[in-house]
Amino acid sequence: MFKKNLNLVIITGFSGAGKTQALQSLEDLGFFCVDNLPPSLIEKFVELCSQSQGKINKAAVVCDLRGGEFFSSLNQALQDLDKVGFHYEILFLEASNEVLVKRYKESRRRHPVSPLGNILEGILMERKYLAELRGNAHKIIDSTDLTAAQMRNKIRELFGENYDPARMNVSVVSFGYKYGIPLDADNIIDVRFLNNPFYIEELKLLNGKDQAVKDYVLNNDVTKKFLEKFLKFLEFTLPYYIKEGKSHLVVGIGCTGGQHRSVAIAEKTAEFLREKNYFCTVSHRDV
């Protein structure tokens, strides 16, 4: 009999994207962790954890392409858990092609999908194979620009002391379009239509966390109308994301450079969500 209050995190994603590091970070948070578990053994693993007499309440496993016959057996394992109503979360790790190639060259390891071919070929094949699984993931981490310390902080943010798989966790991320869109964002909001403080001499060197920039951005009539509609949109959609089983949502808010408008709007959005009792974190990628 499966213990329904066992929190299980299944870590998967691209080879070289940081799955092992994520697992180690979860272990530091008190999760019972197993690396490279064959998908066909997930159900047995859950059974054993459930028989631990309360000693194991949080567990995490890494399942990836090193396991050989991966896709069909993983899908079957997840379907089996769904049939008995056991709740689990899929944490998907990804990174850009360029960064994955660089990491493999530095490690001098072969890519599991293309052991005899070139690294990029393997990455592209893996990206194609994992597309459906990524779409079913509950949480996604893009490790492209993350240091080891930032990865640990990200895992702590998602699975630390406030971790509750039944509660919606919203990450609001401001960014600059000139540096690219965050790969792990579920919703992207473009606020480049708002007046830009960059062209105001006394505001140019400040950012959206400074009061003068906040006042300039937020007190504008267009901004007020936009926020009214945007925040109502979030308030309407979040309960439906929760209903569909999504426990983590990443909202990306972008302006040109990621310094002024997006930062001020992101801070205001996080403030609103916390008032609505959502667990919300805010980060400013390009400040």
From TrEMBL:
Entry keyword set: ATP-binding, GTP-binding, Nucleotide-binding
Protein name, per record: UPF0042 nucleotide-binding protein yhbJ
Segments forming domain RapZ-like N-terminal: 7-162
HAMAP family in the cross-refs: RapZ_like (MF_00636)
Binding residues for ATP: G13, F14, S15, G16, A17, G18, K19, T20
Sequence positions that bind GTP: D64, L65, R66, G67
Pfam families associated with the record: PapZ_C, RapZ-like_N
Domain RapZ C-terminal: 168-287
GO MF entries: ATP binding; GTP binding
